[in-house]
Structure formats: C-alpha cells, structure tokens
Specification:
Belongs to the helicase family. RecQ subfamily. Residues 531-605 form the HRDC domain. The chain folds into four domains: 2-201, Rossmann fold, CATH 3.40.50; 209-337 and 375-402, Rossmann fold (3-Layer(aba) Sandwich); 407-511, Winged helix-like DNA-binding domain superfamily/Winged helix DNA-binding domain (Arc Repressor Mutant, subunit A, Orthogonal Bundle), CATH 1.10.10; 532-604, DNA polymerase, domain 1 (Orthogonal Bundle). The chain starts with a helix and ends with a helix. The strands form four sheets. A seven-stranded parallel β-sheet has the order 3-4-2-5-6-1-7, sandwiched between helices. A six-stranded parallel β-sheet has the order 8-13-12-9-11-10, sandwiched between helices. It is globular. Helix 14 (339-351) runs parallel beside helix 21 (464-476), helix 18 packs across helix 19 (430-438) and helix 19 crosses helix 21. It has 605 residues and is of the alpha/beta class. It has 28 helices and 17 strands. The longest helix is centred in the last third of the chain and has 21 residues, at 532-552. The protein binds adenosine-5'-diphosphate and zinc ion. The site of zinc ion has 7 residues, from helix 16 and helix 17.
Length: 605
C-alpha cells in the first residue's frame, strides 16, 4: 500500500516525497480507518484525502463549505488527470445531472459537495446507490472547525454530518482543519463522533512566514505603501476592518500605482467575483479585503498578508496570515495597529448582541492578541504557544528576533499618565491628556482650567509619540479603558490601582522609530536568486503560463507553481526525461505541457 501511495504521489501529483505526516495519514485512511487531521494552512491537507480516494475503490466524497474553493480544487485535479467534479448551487440542472450520472457509473474519483447539498434527501439517496454499485471510498470533512461553536466559522449543517457515519459505518472518514485550539479540537471530535479516530496533529509553525508588527504613526497609508514597495509585482492581501476602510485603502494603493482591487460583502456579486478571479489568475494583484475574503483562497503564491487594522483574535490572525506563502517560499505577515484599534474593538465587543459569557471570551481573545502585539519576545513562540505548541523562540524570522526591541521601565510614566486621567475627571481622550502632561496650553486646556492640575507639564520629558505609546500600552494591558459613550474618554480600571500605589512596576516596549522600519524592509528574505539567463527563462515561462492559463480560463498556478517554473528555469532541462525529474511535474502535466515548456526554453536560448 505504501509503495502504491508513493507511486501515485510521484506519477500523478509530481511530488518527490511526502511532507510531514502525510504518509501515515494516507496509510491510515486508505486502510479504512478514521482520522482527525490538524495541519496548518499550506501544510498539504488535500493530499491526505485525495490519495486515499484514489487508492480505494469508489468515489471519495469531500464536504467543503466553500464553493469557490471547490471549483479551483476540481480544476487543479483535472489538470493532474484525476476524475473530479463538484456539486453545488453554481451548477445548472443539466450539469448537475451529468455529475450524478458519472458518480453512478463509477466514473468519478472525487466529488466535492457543499454540506447543505449533501444533507438533502436526494443526495443521500444518490449516495446510497453509489455505495451499492461502486462503493464510496471515503468521506472527507474539510474545514472541520465549522462544526464548533467556539470557532469563528460555525456552520449548523456541519453538526448533522454524523449521519454519514450512522448510515455508512464501513466508509472511513477523515476530518481536517487548520484552526484548532484545544476547545475547538475537543468539540470537533465530539460533534463529528470521531473520538476514536486516529489524531494527527502537525506543527502549526510556518517557518517561511516572517511576522512583523508596527505601530500606526498617524501618517495614513505611508507605512503600508513602504511595506508593499518591498513586494513589487507580487500578489498580496491587505485586510481592513470595514467596507469603508477597504474602499479607502484600495483607492490609496491604486493612486500609488499599485494593481490593487477591493473585496467586501457590500459589493455587487458580479464585481466581487470578477475581482476575485483577477486576483487568482493574474500575477501581482493586491487584494484589499474584509475578512469575508480568503476562506478557501487557495492561491499558493501570495507573498504577503498585511493587516491595516487589528484582527479580533490570534486564531483569526493566524488563519489570515496563513494564506501567505502556501508554496513554502518566503512570505511576510505585517500588522499595523494603534490605540484607535484597541478602542474600536473593545467597543465592538461591548456593543455586540452576544451574551455575557461570549463577550468575556472575546475580550480574552483580544487581550491575547494585544499581548502578542506588544510583546518584545519572539512572535512565533507567542503564536505557537497560543495553539499549545512549544517553540524555544529566537526563530530568526520575526521582527523581534531580527531586530530585538528595547524595553524601558515605564512605571513612572504610567503613574503620571494614570494620575492625569484621574485628576482630569476620567472624561478625556489620549490626545488631550498628552497635552496636559506635556504642558501644551491648547484652547481646550484653558477652557477646562487644566493648567492648574498637579499633572500639568509633568511629562515634558517624553514626546507625543512616546506618550501615545504609553497610553496605547496601558489600554492594551487593561489598566485603562475607553468609554464609548463619551468620545472614547479614558478611565481607570481596577488594574491601575497597584501601579498608582507603587505596588507594581511596568515595562514598556520602545516603539521603533521609522528609520529602523525601513531597514527591516530591506532585509526581507529574498527568493532563491536565479542567474541572469535562468531569470530570462523564468520570465519566458511565466509569460507562456499566463497565456496558457487565459486560454483555459484557469488560475496560472493550476498550470505550474512559481517554484516549479523557477526549478525548470534553473535546471534548463534538454528533454522530456530531464524535465520529468523536476519536482512539481507529474505524468499528466508532462504529457500536456512538456513539449511547450521545452519549446519556451529553446526559444530563449
Ligand atoms: P492545505 O489544504 O493544508 O492548506 P494544500 O493541500 O492546499 O494545503 O497544499 C499546500 C501546497 O503544498 C499545495 O501547493 C500543494 O501542491 C503542496 N504540497 C502538498 N503536499 C506536498 C508534497 N508532499 N510535496 C510537495 N508539495 C506538496
Ligand atoms: Zn522570532
């Protein structure tokens, strides 16, 4: 069995070997056993059910919540010569009937289906007949965290998927997800009746992603533009908080000459679909989006994910950043945030409809994310720690490891800030408080007589930026909270008392001045450098790929990944045999594109 799996991996998928635990997972499911697979985005989950489906008799049924993703996966599989299809609401009746006929005739290896479709009487009946005639190879439940209430993508239909196990207990099931903290994990096993399934928990580390967090400096999109300038011509995603922000940021990028498109739920469907298609198919498009975008975006060569507003939780952040660098090549995750973000999110939680328990959970999640942002230690260690995974830190590929930030004893400054909040009546925002501390006699200061306060001018030793950092970190640490109903006036919480009494000391992160940020950017991990002639070959291949993709109306990466093209360009194979030896080229692709690729190389030479 193992040899058969490896053989298929090489001939059909063109990969030289298994990654991580793929071999064990494939063997487990192909052998008829259930499996629960936790693997980070880009880890290679698809193969874990695709291979066993090919190895076993009958068709593999894949439950996936994402129609866009299905289409892409099916397309990619067909390119490999695998008989794949999907059934979802985007298909007309004729096309759906054809898929059903193929299934019953035993002409399908893999069938992707949305959960609500799967649960219909009609489809269950179809499965009954398929099972009786050619067998069902397996049930794969993708994005399995959708079954969990605590997760962030709850789908009620997922809870009914236990019906598969009840009706067809002899068919192995494999549930897969990339998001799973301990409670979500437990809930998946319980809700899908997979307590006895073998568990495969991979490391969630994504070593090729470089993490970086910067503080907003009030200069609008400047920092973002600087960051994107380091990724010229590359695909990326910029996440923003609201529809309005998305539109604004997209426009700013476009004005700066960047090929950027907006994406949010408020746009007309057609426009949204067109933008998504362009992002997937063209090289180097930057998508500016709300988090409505991305689940199921399987583009492997996304080189950066930027958050211009604070995400809601570490899980969300990790999943969103995980969309960068699925192909394993260097990629960057960049987050900028400021006091305003903290205030906004806290406000959103407070005003939400959710019950008290849920709100508290959300507050805890936000606090954990803020802790991550303000941390002076290895980011990777903090992220993995949140998923219960130990990492000794000093990863060498996050901002804090590359350029260790300084911290300073902020106890004195914190006491000044906190007492200024108290003495001015807990009715003012950070801007005004900073004016008082620094002794700036604005109209507002005069009007309220704040020049008479004992805290007037006691903070002239720090500049505005430094004081903003102090207030941001005090809010982040929960010593101050913003009052939504009073123009975000800051007030003390119980946590402030020990500091005011001199019973607790505080250390703050020293925010990096702008010049260091530039240096960091210049140090972004480079791609494997190609020699000049190889670079020419690479460009020619990319151009050929773009044309071919357009002709077939499929995303470029479905034809070949960048990494494969780069490997071809570097190796410069002279014939089909040499070409076949390159990773990423399976039998069907060799047959389909081999000659054309050799022709490109010949033309450039
Ligand atoms: P996930 O669903 O876990 O996010 P995918 O199944 O989409 O990940 O795989 C991510 C990328 O890794 C894909 O581009 C895939 O072709 C590649 N990949 C998966 N397994 C292997 C392997 N054994 N060798 C080389 N590349 C692989
Ligand atoms: Zn690190």
């Amino acid at each position: 069995m193992e040899n058969a799996a490896l053989e298929l991996l090489r001939t059909t998928f063109g990969h030289p070997g298994f990654r991580g635990e793929q071999a064990e997972i494939v063997a487990c499911v192909a052998g008829g056993n259930d499996a629960l697979v936790l693997m980070p985005t880009g880890g290679g989950k698809s193969l874990c059910y695709q291979l066993p489906a090919l190895l076993r008799d009958g068709c593999g049924i894949v439950v996936s919540p994402l129609i866009a993703l299905m289409q892409d996966q099916v397309e990619a599989l067909r390119q490999l010569g695998v008989r794949a299809a999907c059934l979802n609401s985007s298909l007309d009746a004729g096309a759906a009937a054809e898929v059903e006929r193929d299934l019953l005739a035993g002409d399908l290896d893999l069938l992707y289906v949305a959960p609500e479709r799967l649960l219909t009487g009609r489809f269950l009946h179809l499965l009954e007949r398929a099972h009786a005639s050619h067998g069902i190879a397996l049930f794969a439940i993708d994005e399995a965290h959708c079954v969990s209430h605590w997760g962030h993508d709850f789908r009620p239909e997922y809870r009914q998927l236990t019906i598969l196990h009840e009706r067809w207990p002899d068919v192995p099931r494999i549930a897969l997800t990339a998001t799973a903290d301990a409670p979500t994990r437990r809930e998946i096993a319980e809700r899908l009746a997979l307590e006895d399934a073998r568990r495969f928990v991979s490391s969630f580390d994504r070593p090729n992603i470089r993490y970086r967090v910067v503080q907003k400096d009030g200069k609008g999109s400047r920092a973002l533009l600087d960051f994107i300038a380091g990724h010229k011509g590359e695909s990326g995603i910029v996440y923003a908080f609201s529809r309005k922000r998305v539109e604004k940021v997209a426009e700013q990028l476009q004005l700066a000459g960047i090929d950027a498109l907006p994406y949010h739920a408020g746009m007309p469907n057609e426009q949204r679909a067109a933008n998504q298609r362009r992002f997937l198919q063209a090289d180097g498009v930057v998508m500016v989006a709300t988090i409505a975008f991305g689940m199921g975006i399987d583009k492997p060569d996304v080189r950066f994910v930027a958050h211009v507003d604070l995400p809601k939780s570490i899980e969300g952040y990790y999943q969103e950043t995980g969309r960068a660098g699925r192909d394993g090549e260097p990629a960057e995750a960049w987050l900028s945030y400021g006091l305003g973000d903290v205030v906004n999110l806290r406000q959103l939680i407070n005003q939400g409809e959710a019950g008290e328990e849920r709100k508290q959970l959300e507050v805890r999640k936000l606090d954990a994310l803020l802790g991550y942002c303000e941390s002076t230690d290895c980011r990777r260690q903090a992220l993995l720690g949140w998923f219960g995974e130990a990492h000794e830190g000093h990863c060498g590929n996050c901002d804090n490891c590359i350029d260790p930030p300084e911290s300073w004893d902020g106890t004195e400054a914190a006491r000044k800030a906190l007492s200024c909040v108290y003495r001015s009546g807990q009715r003012f925002g950070a801007g005004h408080l900073i004016d008082i501390l620094r002794g700036v006699a604005t109209d507002k200061v005069q009007r309220f007589g704040h020049g008479q306060l004992s805290t007037w001018g006691i903070g002239a030793d720090l500049d505005v930026r430094q004081w903003s950092g102090v207030f941001r970190q005090l809010v982040a640490a929960g010593l101050l909270e913003a009052d939504v109903d009073r123009h975000n006036a800051l007030r003390l919480t119980a946590l402030a008392t020990p500091v005011l009494r001199g019973e607790r000391t505080l250390r703050f992160r020293k925010d990096a001045p702008r010049s260091t940020r530039r240096r960091e950017r210049a140090g972004a991990a480079p791609m494997i450098e190609l020699a000049p002639e190889a670079a020419l070959r690479f460009d020619a291949l990319r151009e050929w790929r773009a044309t071919t993709a357009r002709e077939q109306n499929v995303p470029a990466y479905v034809i070949f990944h960048d990494a494969t093209l780069r490997a071809i360009a570097a190796a410069d194979p002279g014939d089909l045999d040499d070409l076949a030896g390159i990773a990423g080229i399976g039998g069907t692709k060799l047959e389909r594109y081999g000659e054309a690729v050799l022709q490109q190389l010949f033309d450039v030479a």
